[in-house]
Amino acid sequence: MNLNIIPVKWSDEGVLMLDQRLLPTEEKWLTLKTYNDVAAGIKDMVVRGAPAIGVSAAYGIALGANSFVGTNVDDLEEEVEYIGDVLAATRPTAVNLFWAIDRMKAKFQHEKGNGRSVSELKALLIEEAKAIHDEDIESQRLIAQFGGELLNDHDTVLTHCNAGALATGGVWGTALGVIRGAVDQGKHVAVIADETRPYLQGARLTAWELMQDDIPVTLITDNMSGHVMKKGRVQAVVVGSDRIAANGDVANKIGTYMVAVLAKRHGIPFYVAAPLSTVDLNTATGDDIPIEERDIREVTHVKDIQLAPDEATVSNYAFDVTPNDLVTAIITEKGVARAPYIESLKKQFEA
Ligand code: MRU
After folding, report:
1. 228-278 pLDDT per residue, tens
2. Distance from the CA of 174 to the center of ligand 1, in angstroms?
3. Topology of the domain comprising 146-350
4. Separation of CA 81 and ligand 1 centre (Å)
5. Domain locations along the chain
6. Domain 8-141, second-level architecture
7. Which of 66, 149, 289, 300 is deepest in the core (most CB within 10 A)?
8. 242 part of the active site
9. Is the CB of 169 under 6 A from ligand 1?
10. What is the DSSP string of 94-135?
């Protein structure tokens, strides 16, 4: 396996991001030199996927703090708070964004309490962002290991959206991490990837990513998933998540709920793979998860080609919520959680 897709990196010149808007036809890296560039990169989907957004936001804070001019720690604190607010306003659903911002701010407070100078704080924020990134990759490695054990030799797994290395700190991915984990364990696993309208993360990113690793992947349109399940072609569904509520309700890319209902109908296990940074114990149920609505042009057009009539009334929900009773198990870096999730998820935080 290739195992070297890392979509966001720290460098002395700035934050490097693989421009996912151009994949699969062009592999272009952008160098983002300000926290505003990083915020725009998240908002405009240069980088996307919950854990990748979290890692990027952490680097954005480190980058912004490092361009602060001055020696007063209180002024730097004000700047870090402000940068955190700018980054938090980019996308509402993926909780990893807010988790990473809060962790960076907590690190600042802790080290300020230790009497650190401005230059020391700047260096410590870079270190913390790198630690968030490293820990994310390690979490995906463990998810891959635990999740891989749930799959059998010669299984075909259906996945939705892109929950791969591209959507995380890199290397494994969450849902695709489970598949890579199984392959790593010597199993022959094939994938069916939903194209994932309207933004086409499945067609553009998941197919590309799996082909880099020589993992067999068949692309289908979203409305084919019921048919392939009915035909017996799918032994498991594995998806990622943008936010998991305390009760195990799962927000993920629009269309995930439909896939979960179909999986239940056909007796196919529906697994969710996500690090604990995606689990939000402060959100009681899926009803409390904010659902991003995006530009309707994503629905009415594909690139510059118009598909719908001018002035058509359009909805573009980016995510939906799968109720916990449709979820067979949630795989995190701490292991495999099963219902009742209100208890099993809490236990994982305590472990
Ligand atoms: O809108 P996106 O592309 O950021 O949405 C991403 C997803 O919904 C992924 O499935 C989810 O973040 C899990 S990523 C490991």
Report:
1. 999 999 999 999 999 999 999 999 999 999 999 999 999 999 999 999 999
2. 10
3. Rossmann fold (3.40.50)
4. 26
5. 8-141, 146-350
6. Up-down Bundle (1.20)
7. 289
8. yes
9. no
10. -HHHHHHHHHHHHHHHHHHHTT--HHHHHHHHHHHHHHHHHH
